[in-house]
Amino acid sequence: MLNKTFLSTLSAILFACLAVPAAAEPSPARQKELIHLVRQDCGSCHGMTLQGGLGPALLPATLADKPVEGLVATIIGGRPGTPMPPWHRFLGEDEAQWIVAKLLSGFPQ
Amino acid sequence: MRHPLQFLLLGLLALLLGACAGTPVRGTGDLGLVIERASGHVTLVNTSSRSAYARIGGLGDLSHASVVYSRDARYAFVFGRDGGLTKVDLLEARIVKRVMQSGNAIGGSISQDGRIVVAQNYTPGGIKAFDAETLELLSEVPAEYAPGQFSKVVGLADVPGNKFAYALFDGGEIWVSDFSDPRKPVTQRFPAGQQPYDGLVTPNGRHYLAGLFGEDGIALLDLWQPEQGARKILEKYGRGEDKLPVFKMPHLRGWSVAAGRAWLPAIGRHEVLVADATTWQETGRVAVKGQPVFVMASPDGRQIWVNFAFPDNGWVQVIDTLSGKVVQTLQPGKAVLHMEFTPRGEAVWLSARDDNRVVIYDTRNFARLGEISAEAPSGIFFTSRAARIGF
Predict the structure, then answer these.
(1) Cα distance from B303 to chain A (closest Cα, Å)?
(2) Residues of A12-37 as b/e, b for ≥16 C-beta within 10 angstroms?
(3) For residue A50, which residues of chain B lie inside 8 Å, CB to CB?
(4) DSSP B197-216
């Protein structure tokens, strides 16, 4: 049981490390802003707890099979034909990558 | 003839008995409820004293929560995002009953006769009807618009005849379910358009409007003549121009009708669309500061207050319905999520989520009348909704 949890955590960390190229981490103050943005503003469609609403859930389990580049591109450029808007006015690509990595490993409160 | 002292004594006795009973007798007409979205709390408020009088916790995930009232305006039914349905007694300031009715909900409504409370759900998509007294499940209508395909339900509104109208975001239809027999609802379906995002019923209960996200236009169903089907109004209001990004979906309710016109948020344009509420032809549009979210008329219909999606959600603008012009631009606080007028509209309460307060303005001179502390406040719901169709 412990082994299983340990292994899945380890693989999640490894997956996140492998998938997201090493990018400059946002400063702690900026991280706080990004967390607030995701929970409150992304949350108006995806839910504050990220369990989905008009938009899909953004939980590790629901995102696990999605390619990281695609997720980053969705945040930056939006998804035409859906209500997902582009967020590039408010986020750099490295910040979107940080958000994706955090979503995949369980988003901070 | 009795001695005046006898009356005095009787009065005193009544007062003493009242005190013994605990809660003094009072009405609920000036009471209301503020959602504190992040902490699962609600704050109960009094619009006469402009103050909070109680705070209740344990309501679950209240991000995007909404409220309807029992027809005696004593009980609030709070629909949480997590599918929780909580019945709150405003007089005793306590939770009377709470059920988990779905996995992911978006709001609810109460029937014309006040006996049925209906929740609208994203997952599993559909509506569920509950006994307003006991919260016992009576029936459900799954939003299965094609075999095995379920839609998220938006824009649920009570309409006369113990019916409920709502729209299917994924299904592109308006449905009207008749709950004359609460255990055996009968549903009519009407093709509406691409991606309805919310809906409203006009204050007289006659027209149901569904705002469309996937195309420029609004679907309109005449509930007095449903056989005519839904038609589109304000078609192609974007004139083929590229849409601006929408960082938060607008909300529609029957407050949009004022001064004989409907005042509706455009999608992807920083405009309020205006249509004649008889002919449904466009009569104008008002340029505003951002993507409108709530476009709300004051009870007398003289003013329209508009708040905006991120990143313009620190602004609020006021349109004068006589001139059709913006007459006031305010900055009530950070992240203004919702507004609510007092029953006769002398004041408006606005929630500033990121300032952790509800701010109160005088609607006549725009002076700030006061504020109430609340943790990440979102929806504000006064009991005057109890008597209105579509609330």
Answers:
(1) 27
(2) eeebbeebbeeeeebeeeebeebeeb
(3) none
(4) EEEEE-TTS-EEEEEESSSS
Domain ranges of chain A: 2-105
Residue A9 backbone dihedrals phi, psi, to 5 degrees: -65, -45
What span, in angstroms and rounded, lies between the C-alpha atoms of B178 and B247?
35
Phi and psi angles of residue A33, each rounded to the nearest 5 degrees, phi first: -65, -40
Contact A54 B152 (CB under 8 A): yes
H or E stretch covering B17? helix B4-20
Numbers of helices and strands, H then E, in chain B: 1, 34
**What angle (nearest 5°) sits at the alpha carbon of residue A104, between those of residues B335 and B80?**
45
Contact between B173 and B145 (Cβ < 8 Å): yes
Domain A2-105: top CATH class: mainly alpha
Q: Where are the beta strands (DSSP E) in chain A?
A: none
CB < 8 Å to A54, chain B: 106, 122, 152, 154, 169, 197, 249
Contact between chains at A51 and B104 (C-beta distance less than 8 A):
yes
The length of chain B in residues reads 391
Q: Do B195 and A86 touch (CB under 8 A)?
A: no
Do residues B355 and B377 make contact, with C-beta atoms less than 8 angstroms apart?
no
Judge: A48–B38 Cβ closer than 8 Å, yes or no.
yes
Chain A residues near residue B214 by CB distance under 8 angstroms: 81
- Each residue's pLDDT tens digit, B124-166: 899 999 999 999 999 999 999 999 999 999 999 999 999 999 9
What's the predicted TM-score (pTM) here?
Answer: 0.90
For B303-328, write each residue's pLDDT tens digit: 999 999 999 999 999 999 999 999 99
A10 phi/psi in degrees, rounded to 5:
-60, -45
Q: State pLDDT tens for residues B94-108.
A: 999 999 998 888 899
Candidates B208, B294, B202; CA nearest to B257 is B202
A21 touches chain B (CB under 8 A): no
Distance from the Cα of B7 to chain A's closest Cα (Å) equals: 59
Which residues lie closer than 8 Å to B187 by C-beta, 6 or more apart? B141, B175, B176, B177, B178
d(CA A46, CA B61): 13
- The CA-CA-CA angle for residues B44, B50, B56, to 5°, reads 15
* Predicted pLDDT of residue B9: 52
> Most B CBs within 10 Å: which of A36, A41, A91, as the mutation test of the B interface?
A41
